Hints:
With about 70 residues, the protein is α+β, with helices and mostly antiparallel strands. The protein is built from one helix and four strands.
Amino acid sequence: MAANPEPRWFKSSYSGGSGTECVECAQVSHGALIRDSKCGNGPILSVRPRAWRRFVDSVRHGLRQSS
């Protein structure tokens, strides 16, 4: 059985250049991974595909607030 490849981490194009308050994401077969870019060996949050799509859609289209 082949070993799982290392995730390909990326930062948002909206990330600031100052190196603070930034996260990195990686898409994997079971969803997405999220980590603090300043702590690459720290904890990683794993998110299922449906939750990741809903999050990205909410960010892309703006959060809708109920009245």
